[in-house]
Amino acid sequence: MARYNVKETEAKWQSTWEKRQCFAVRDFADKPKYYVLEMFPYPSGRIHMGHVRNYTLGDVVARYKRARGFNVLHPMGWDAFGLPAENAAIANKVHPAKWTRENIAAMRAQLKTMGLSYDWEREIATCDPDYYRHEQKFFLDFIKHGLAYRKESWVNWDPAEQTVLANEQVIDGRGWRSGAPVEKRRLSQWFLKITAFAEELLDGIDTLERWPERVRLMQANWIGRSEGAHMTFALTGGADLASASLQVYSTRPDTIFGASFCAIAANHPLTETLAAHNPELQAFVAECNRLGTSEAALETAEKIGFDTGLRAVHPFIEGHTLPVYVANFILMDYGTGAIFGCPAHDQRDLEFARKYGLDITPVVAPPEADAGAVTIGEQAYTGGGRMINSDFIDGMPVEDAKSEIIARLEQQGLGARTVNYRLRDWGVSRQRYWGCPIPIIHCPACGIVPVPEKDLPVTLPEDVSFDKPGNPLSHHPTWKHVDCPACGKKAERETDTFDTFFESSWYFARFCSPLADEPFIREAADYWMPVDQYIGGIEHAVLHLLYSRFFSRALKRCGYLKTEEPFAGLLTQGMVCHETYRDEGGRWLYPEETVQDESGNIVHAKTGRPVTLGRSEKMSKSKFNVVDPAKIIGSYGADTARLFMLSDSPPDRDLDWTDAGIEGAWRYINRLWRLVTEPALALPDPETPKPAEFSPAADAVRRLTHKTIAAVSEDLDRFHFNRAVARIRELTNALEGLKAGAGTDWALREGLEAATCLIGPMMPHVAEELWQRLGFTALLADTPWPEADQSLLADENVTIAVQVNGKLRGTIELAKDAAQEDAKAAALQLPRVREALENKPPRKVIVVPNRIINVVV
RNA sequence: GCCCCUGUGGCGGAAUUGGUAGACGCGCUGGACUCAAAAUCCAGUUCUCGCAAGGGAGUGGGAGUUCGACUCUCCCCGGGGGCACCA
Questions:
Q1: A79 Cβ contact list (under 8 Å, min separation 6)
Q2: Could you tell me what percent of chain A has a pLDDT over 70?
Q3: What pTM was computed for the model?
Q4: A609-631 core/surface letters (b: 16 or more CB in 10 A; e: else)
Q5: Which residues, in sequence order, are bridge partners of residue A811?
Q6: N or C: chain A end with fewer CB closer than 10 Å?
Q7: Selection from A306, A310, A318 nearest residue A237 by Cα
Q8: What are the CA-CA distances from residue A666 to residues A8, A629, A635, A729, A848 (Å)?
Q9: Residue A346: which nucleotide is closest by CA–C1'?
Q10: Which residues contact A744 (CB under 8 A, 6 or more apart)?
Q11: CB-to-strand B under 7 Å, chain A 148-177
C-alpha cells in the first residue's frame, strides 16, 4: 500500500469541502447556535506560528461543535487598517490599499492550506468602505448620545509613529508598537466616553464565568475603582484668588486631621493660572514635564514641590490653613489632580513632608499600639486602627471615621462621598492616513459640524503622497477642503482617522450579517451574539477586549444591539516559543548558522566560535528564532502542524516549538494511515452486524474504545486538547496490538472508526481520507460525533491498591463493587501484608471501594 | 512595592479534584529487519542500593492536618506576568 500522500490528500479534501460548501452557515436553524471566533489577523502578508496555533484551536472547537449538532458560525476577516501599510508605502512606494489587498490575498491562500472550517462567504476587511462607513455612522450616534466628545488635553504622543496613543497603548512609558518613549502633548482630540460605563464594565466582569481569572483581574485593575470623597478647600493668600477654592480627592478622608499640606499637579488649571505671571513656577512646571512619568524617571525622581504661597483652609480646624504646593508626583488625570497630604499615613506624603519640613501628625493608632506613643519613622502607617489627635472622630475605627467625616463634609457643603476610577476616556484620534476618516467638518463659523448621514461614507482619497512626514490627508491638495454642511461657507475636513481598535471593537457583530447594507441585521445579531467562544492572545487582555466590551454597551445604548458582553467564553492561548542562539558578542544567530562539533559543543558553522544556546523565547524576527509555517505545512502538511500545536502543551500555556515534536506528529499520522490501510486483521464492511461473542482481548479493546469516546468528548468540552490527543494515541496503541480472536476484527473496525472520528477535528484531512477508506460515502465533516456505549464504560473487574501504613504493598483484582468485607479479607491475605502484620491484627483497615485499601499496623 | 500565575523524570506534560505519581509524546539505551542506511517493529527508560527477588527515596524547600498529600493549611525560595508616585 502506498505511503500517505499529504499534499494530494490535503488539497483534495480542501477542495471537496469548498465545493460542497460544507462550512457555509445559515442564520437560524432548529439546532442550537454556537459562535466560535479567533481574533482576526492583521494582514502582514504571511501567517506565523501564533496564527497557526490560534486558528487550529478555533478550528478544533468549530469542527467538534459542528459534529455535536450545533449550528456553528466560524468566520474569518482582516483587521486591515494600520501603520505597517503606511510604513510599507513609505519604504516601497506602494499604496497602502494595494499592499493590504495583496497581503490579504496571500494570507487567505496560506490559511486555506490549513484546512480551516471557515465560512469564507462572510469574510470582511475593515479597510473596505462598506465596513468602515458604519463606524462613521456609529460615531455620529455616539456624539448624539454623549458618548463621543472633543476636548483639548494632554495626550501621549508617539514621536516614532507621529501620532497620539491611547493610555492602554502606552506600556512602561513607551509606544506599544514603536517602543519609542512617549511624549506629552496638548492637543485637541476625539474621545469615546468609556468612563460612562466604568461601573458596568467592572460589574460585568463577574458575569464572565468562562473567562480566565487573570484577564478578569487585569481588567478590574485597569478600571481601578476606589471609594473616597471629594472635598473642597477654600483658598486664601492670593490676592486675585481669594474667592477660589480647591477640590481634592482622597480615599482617606478620615486622616484629614493629620493633613499638613495640599498639592496640585503641574498641569492643573490652577497651576497654569498661577504660572501665567510667575516665571519661577513656569520653570518648575517645565522641569516636571521634562522628567515625564516613565518608570525609569519615577524610580529615581525625588519628590519635589513648589510653594505657591496660597493657603488652603482646613474644613474642621478653626483658623488653620495648609500650604499649597505644586508637586511633581501629583497626576492631573487621576481624581481631581489635587490632594491633601497626610504624611503620617501615606508614604509619598511622608517623603514630601520630610523634604520640606512639614508637620507629621499621626491620626491613626494601630490596634496593638498605645495611643499616646504612636510615632512615625521611615514608613508611613497605612493600616487600620483607631483615630487619635482627631477631635470629634477620636477613638473611632478608620471605617467609621471615614463615614463620619464624609457626613460632616456633606452637611457643610464642602464635599461628598465619591467613587473614583482609574479608567480614562478612550482617545481615538490618530494622525494617520490608513484608517477610517473621522466624519467631521471644522467650520470657521459653525465650529465642529458632523458630516450629515446622507454624505457618508467619507472615503479615503486614493491619490496620496507619503513624501512628506506627517499625515498625507492634511497634505492632500483638495480632499480636506469642503463646504460647511451647515452654512455652506468654506470649511475643512477633520484629517485625523480612528484608532484601529475602533474597527476591531465590533467586527464580531458584523460577522452576523457581513453583507448587509445596514451595520447589523438585528435578527441575525440577536441570534448569533454573543460569541460563545473567543480565542486569542493574552496581549489583548485589556486593550481590545475592554474596548469591545465598551463598544457593545455603546451600540446597545444607540439601539443597534442587545448584547452587553460580546464574548461569553474566552480562551487565551500561550505564545509559540523556540530556542535562541547567540554568538560570543551576544548577537542572535539563526539555528542553521550553528553546528555541533566533535565534542558535542554548539559552535558557529562558519567561524567555529562558541555559541550559547539561549532559553526558548517567543518567536520573533529580531531573535532569529522564527519557524515559517508555510515550510512546515509544505513538507509535513497541515495536519502535522495542527497535531503538534495541540498535543504538546495545554492551549493557555506557552508552547515550545521543536523539530522532534513535529517529527513525532508526522510519525503518528503515518501509523494511523498504516493501521487503516494495512490492517493486521481483515476489516469487515461497515454494515457487518455485531458478532455475538468477543474474546477477552476484543472485549477489552471495545471497552477502551468507548471509554476513549467518552473521555475525549469531555476533554474537548474543556479544551484539554493535549489530553484528548494522548487518549486517542492510547487507543491507537491498543488497536495496533490486537491479535486474531473472536470478534477482534469487528472490534478493530469499531476502534478505527472511533479513532478517526475523534481525531477528525484536529487532523481533518487525514481523518477524512481514512473515513473514506473505511468504506463510508458520507463526508466525515458531515458525520455526527460518536456516542459512547454506556454499558461498556464500567469495568467488571477493578484493580485495588493495597497499602500498609500508606505505602503500596501490592494490588488485588476484584469484581467491581465487591463487598467491603471480601475486599478487606483479600487484602489481608497478600503475603507482603501478612509479613508486615507479623500475625498481629491490624490496628485499622481503611477500605475505599473499588480504589484502595490501607492497612494500618 | 502591590496583585496574579507557576514549580512533577533528561525534556513537553498526565494524575478521575485527598486514594497505585510519571498517562501520552519527545529523547535516550539495547535488539530485530537490512550489504548498509533511512523507515518500521520489539524491549527498556524517575533516582538510588541489589546479580536477582526486593528495599529505600521522590512532585522547589521546611513544617502541619490526615489511615493516606503533587492535591488542603502556614512559612520560605525560584521562574513568569500584570499594575505602579492612582492620593
A1: A40, A41, A42, A43, A126, A500, A503, A504, A507
A2: 97
A3: 0.93
A4: eebeeeebebbeeebbbbbebee
A5: A801
A6: N
A7: A310
A8: 16, 15, 10, 13, 43
A9: B87
A10: A681, A694, A695, A697, A698, A701, A738
A11: 171
Residue A190 phi, psi dihedral angles, 5° rounding: -90, 140
Of the candidates A798, A783, A772, A789, which has an alpha carbon nearest to the alpha carbon of residue A694? A789
Matching residue, cell 460605563: A197
Residue at minimal CA–C1' distance from B42?
A737
CA of A219 to C1' of B24 (A): 36
Q: What's the alpha-carbon Rg for chain A, to the nearest Å? A: 34
Q: Helix, strand, or coil here: A180? A: coil
DSSP alpha helices (H): ranges in A318-452? Answer: 347-356, 398-412
CA separation for the pair A491, A480 (Å, rounded): 8
* pLDDT class of A295 with cuts at 50, 70, 90: very low
Distance A56 CA to B13 C1' (A): 20
pLDDT computed for residue A264 by the predictor = 93
A617 touches strand B (CB under 7 A): no
pLDDT in the model for residue A296: 42
Q: What percent of chain A has pLDDT over 90?
A: 63
| A530 prior amide bond cis, ω within 30 | yes
DSSP code for A86: H
Q: What is the mean pLDDT of residues A747-757?
A: 96
Counting every residue written for chain A, the total comes to: 857
Between CA A552 and CA A559 the distance in angstroms is 10
Measured CA to CA, the distance from residue A446 to residue A307 in angstroms comes to 43
As a whole number of angstroms, the distance between CA A678 and CA A429 comes to 64
Residue A313 has pLDDT above 80, yes or no: yes
Which nucleotides of strand B lie within 7 A of protein CB?
3-5, 11-16, 19-21, 23-27, 39-42, 54-57, 67-69, 81-87
Q: Does A189 score more than 80 pLDDT?
A: yes
Instruction: Report yes or no: A291 and A301 within 8 Å, Cβ to Cβ.
Output: yes
In the predicted model, is pLDDT for residue A692 greater than 50? yes
Nucleotide showing the shortest C1' distance to residue A332 CA = B86
For residues A435 and A178, the answer to whether their CB atoms sit within 8 Å is no
Q: Any atom of strand B under 7 A from CB of A217?
A: yes
Instruction: Using the C1' atom of nucleotide B55, identify the protein residue whose alpha carbon is closest.
Output: A809
More confident residue, A186 or A557: A557
Determine the distance between A669 (CA) and B42 (C1') in angstroms: 21
So what's the pLDDT on residue A814? 86
Give the cell for residue A360: 507629621
The answer to whether A216 CB sits below 7 Å from nucleic acid chain B is: no
> Cell 535562541 sits at which residue?
A580
Confidence of residue A223 (pLDDT cuts 50, 70, 90): very high
First-to-last CA distance in chain A? 62
Confidence bin at A540 (pLDDT 50/70/90): confident
CB-CB contact of A812 with A823 (8 Å)? yes
Q: Residue A612 CB closer than 7 angstroms to strand B?
A: no
Whether A289 CB is under 7 Å from strand B: no
Can you tell me the ipTM of this complex?
0.94
Judged by C1' against the alpha carbon of A336, the nearest nucleotide is B87
